[in-house]
Amino acid sequence: MATVDLTVMGAGAFGLSVAFVCAARGAKVRVIEKRRVGAGSSGGIVGALAPHAPERWNDKKAFQFESLVMAEQFWANVERVSGLSSGYGRTGRLQPIINERGLALAHERAAQAAELWQGKAQWRVLPYTDFADWAPPSPTGYVIHDTLTARLHPAQSCAALAGALTALGGEVVTGDAKPEGAVLWATGYEGLMALSAQLDQFVGHGEKGQALLLKYAAPDMPQLFADTVHFVPHADGTLAIGSTTERDFDAPDTTDAQLDGLLERALAAVPQLAGAEVLQRWAGVRPRAKSRAPMLGEYPGKPGHFIANGGFKIGFGVAPKVAELMADLILNGKDSIPPAFRVEANL
């Protein structure tokens, strides 16, 4: 008889979140991670939990919205059980509006958010002067302020999830170990490449991302998004800047000169960061499924095996809802995964 009900392969955002929820429901859970907790892109530094624009509503945007609304309670539970901080905070986000066309579009989206976000968050167009000490200059004099965007510290969140799992009687094993019971594969971009090879067809790949961590304390300030750069103030007195994207890469675990260009753009957009000490230069490879949506469901041709992969840039943002749906499927056989998120959407 198996000593565990569920083995999770991979200790990243999806794997650990599903493991935590299943353990909280009473399952015996073991996570196997060949390197370390948060070894892949889930161990990064940015942690921007930002919604898609409230227009052209679809399953992906609705799923993300529901998960972002769930996030505050989800991470509060993780912190309560583990005694560790995830760095979560729903601090909102500011975006300068650069021209009149953008201003008109921002007002349209505000009206759509009023309906689609169900009063649970706001997308507002406000004078730049309301945030002049923090927001980048805005050519129109206005900024978008959304109250749905949140932040967390990815590496700290992975550690908190692992701590919560062990507090519930689960375990995290580092190295090679044989899976028992039901098996969830949450193995990042390497898992997508392995599945592509097994099926002899492309289902996903990895895209390299890079980011910087500065010593700059603004823990209660909103995130900024300017010149395609994310600025994420963390609760611990640091500020993350990210990120770059590369589809072709030879050395996925190293940083390179692109970060120098990123820093230049960041300082041009937010001059008050000049002189802040660079604490960390980070690079990692994010898993991107063929459909560009997370890949969830049963593993093709492997009864009792499941997949949760392809979080790409929204992995932590959708993790709370991914965890609930996958726990329903694995533990209870209840399948309510949206069509756009199903494994077969990538086949």
Automatic annotation (TrEMBL):
Species the sequence originates in: Actibacterium lipolyticum
Pfam families: DAO (PF01266)
Domain FAD dependent oxidoreductase, first and last residues per copy: 5-329
Entry protein name: Glycine oxidase
GO molecular function: glycine oxidase activity
UniProt-listed Enzyme Commission number(s): 1.4.3.19
Top EC class, one word: oxidoreductase
Transmembrane spans: none
GO CC annotation, single: cytoplasm
Coiled coil: none
Keywords: Oxidoreductase
InterPro entries registered for this protein in UniProt: FAD-dep_OxRdtase, FAD/NAD-bd_sf
UniProt-listed PANTHER family: GLYCINE OXIDASE (PTHR13847:SF289), SARCOSINE DEHYDROGENASE-RELATED (PTHR13847)
